[in-house]
Amino acid sequence: MRKLVVAFVVLAGFAGLVGIGAVTVLLSGGGGRAGWSSCSSDLGPWGDGQERGERDAATLSDDSVRIAQRIIEIGQQRGLPPRAWQIAIQAGKTESNLANVNYGDRDSLGIFQMRPSMGWGSPQQVTDVDYAINKFYDVLLEVPGWEEMRPGTAAQKVERSAFPLRYHKWEAMAAHLVSTEGDVAGISGCEDLPSAGVLAEQALKYAHAQLGKPYVWGAAGPDTFDCSGLTQQAWKAAGVDIPKYSQTQYFQGGVHVPLNQAQPGDLVFWGSGRDPKGIHHVALYLGDEQVLHAPQPGESVEVEKLWDGGELLPMVVRPAADTPPKEAAAPAAGGQR
């Protein structure tokens, strides 16, 4: 939720002027740390995803590194693009921590927690590293439009997990591992990102209908909301699933876009020191420096002027629906259990 600030009256006016000036700078494109790939969803805002990827990769065991390397080698042998390797690495890291385990939920086994009972192969096959990797690639290639999807979304199309958003967590790590052998730049440049369009209009229509409803921490409707509950339910009304909590929405809710390119429906965030790890509030951008949000206890869903206070992040998140023509005709893997 938005932080409560207690200040002397004599300082309040000055602070307000500073906040207005900072918002103007951020919306005009200044004030944020420049990044080589600010619209890259796989490497994160300001280029910090590259550092995060290196840190996450450094925690892998030697066996996990070998499995990741084998995923890349088999992908190369099959003539698959680096994006396919990245997707497989993200799936393996999520399902087993890139380990060839002989246990799992129900009869799930191996790197990708494939279930023999669901047609993925015998227990001996799904725990054979090369078989499991090739099987993953076989099913991935049956997913329509997988090349244009966010990598974690494509992994979910193969795994068909009950927790579809979790694959995004390892985007930066997988991109880092693949970068030594192939190019996996952002899924699109800023100019090619999906526009707000009809989906955003639907999300904002839902949000406007909630005006005046009270803030309750942890609530996600229908009668009360907290900040992330409102944004989640607004986009759900548009047919787009995003996670519940504000920090998770920032890292897993969609594609990062500079604040000065924000469109109505984008998610705007506040965090201590403008640090994504310190995010504590999220709102829906309306345009014209206006936001719609659930502020804090004792207040209600409202429209308010965009403010800064030294905490407004220079990046917003644009949720987007997956639009492949149909689901892949594939057996359920480790996720659907």
3D structure, described in words:
The chain folds into 2 domains: 148 residues, Alpha-Beta Complex (endopeptidase fold (from Nostoc punctiforme)); 132 residues. It has 11 helices and 6 strands. A hairpin with a 7-residue loop joins strand 2 and strand 3. It has 337 residues and is of the alpha+beta class. The longest helix is centred in the first third of the chain and has 19 residues.
| CATH level-3 fold name of the largest domain | endopeptidase fold (from Nostoc punctiforme)
Q: Per the principal axes of the C-alpha atoms, what is the gross shape?
A: elongated
The neighbouring-strand order within the major sheet is 2-3-4-5
Q: What is the highest CATH level, the class of the largest domain?
A: Alpha Beta
Strand content is: 5-15%
User: What are the secondary-structure elements, in order, as H or E?
Assistant: HHHHHHHHHHHEEEEEE
- Count of alpha/pi helices: 11
What is the CA-CA span between the terminal residues?
Answer: 34 Å
The CATH architecture of the largest domain: Alpha-Beta Complex
Brief digest:
By secondary structure, the protein is an alpha+beta fold. The two termini are 34 Å apart. InterPro entries: NLP_P60_dom, Papain-like_cys_pep_sf, PG_Endopeptidase_C40.
Descriptors:
four-stranded antiparallel beta sheet, 2 domains, 9% strand, alpha+beta, 11 helices, two-stranded antiparallel ribbon, 337 residues, disordered N terminus
